[in-house]
Structure formats: structure tokens, C-alpha cells
Amino acid sequence: MTTPREHLIDWLQDAYAMEVQAEKLMDNLRSRLNQYPSLSAKLDQHIQETKGQAEQVKQCLHQLGADTSSLKTGFAAFTGTAQALSGMFVTDEVVKGAVFSHAFEQFEVANYTVLIAAAQAAGEPAIAATLEAIRREEEAMAGWLRDNLPALVQQFLLTGEKR
Ligand code: MG
Ligand code: FE
Questions:
Q1: b/e string for 90-121 if b means 16 or more Cβ within 10 A?
Q2: Sequence ranges of the domains in the chain
């Protein structure tokens, strides 16, 4: 039988891969948003947070006597690159990118919610607290994207296909 601790380790490895993917996706999107300074700046800020999240998740794994999975991280990095590339040359990519980014942040929120419950079940309150702090950053980013979508769409509709 798989113990809560083993599931926690497995899901933390997934979360590490998710953060590596998140960084690549945001980095790629940001590099093509010269006309949208506020979104670009926000992505830049969250890229820095994301690097910190990946490091914190790695530390959680070390505290459990485990490490990141090169297999999982490698695959996620590959799919992240493929997804980032697939959005290229789409004229409304700023809108599509913002929608996708919002959905991705909500995906992260749900995953950290699972991890927090797993950490509590495994008797790891310190790890749960770290994961709660990360979840607050994801919620803040998801909220910012949602709140700024209308202005972003207005700017896109006014300035057309410039980027
Ligand atoms: Mg994240
Ligand atoms: Fe995030």
C-alpha cells in the first residue's frame, strides 16, 4: 500500500515539474509582449516567484529524504516548450496567452490544495505551511490575470495585431 508520505513525494515531484513548465511558458509569452508593459512586468514578477517556488518544492522533497524526478521534469519541460511554441504567430496570442495563463494559475492552485492536504495527512505541518505560502502567490497571480483581462482585451482591440 502506498503511504500518504509516498504520495506526497510523488505529487511534490509533479509540482516541481509543473513549476519548471510554468517558468518556460511565462518566459516565452513575456518575450513576445512588448506592446503590453503591465502584463509583461507582471509575468516577469511571477517568473521570479516561480523560480522561488521550484526551489521551495525541491527543499520540501529534500526534507522528506527525496529529490526531484529528472524523468518527470524532463517530460514537463518538453511539453512546456511544445505548448509555448504552438502559440507562436497567432495574432491574438496576448489574449489567448492571458486566458491560458489564468487557467494554468488555477491549475496550480488546485494542485497545491491537494499537496497541502497530503502534507497534513502525512504529518508534515512545516511542509504544509510552505505550500500554503506558494498557493497564496498562485491565487494572487490568477486574480491579477482575471482582473486585468478586460483592459488587456480593450488594448488588443484598439491596437490590433501589433505586438
Ligand atoms: Mg507556480
Ligand atoms: Fe504560478
A1: eeebbbebbbbbbebbbebbebbeebbebbee
A2: 4-159
Give the containing element (helix H, strand E) for 139. Answer: helix 125-159
Give tens-digit pLDDT for 65-75: 999 998 888 87
The pLDDT tens digits of the residues spanning 47-92 come to 999 999 999 999 999 999 999 998 888 876 666 666 666 655 567 8
Ligand 1 centroid distance, CA of 160 (Å)? 31
Tell me, in angstroms, the distance from the centre of ligand 2 to residue 35's CA. 22
Q: Radius of gyration over alpha carbons of the chain, in Å?
A: 17
Cα 135 to averaged position of ligand 2 atoms, centre (Å): 8
**Residue 21, C-alpha cell as written in the block:** 513548465
Mark the residues whose beta carbon lies below 5 A from ion ligand 2: 108, 138
- Distance (angstroms) between ligand 2 centre and the Cα of 108 equals 6
- Say whether domain 4-159 belongs to CATH 1.20.1260.10: yes
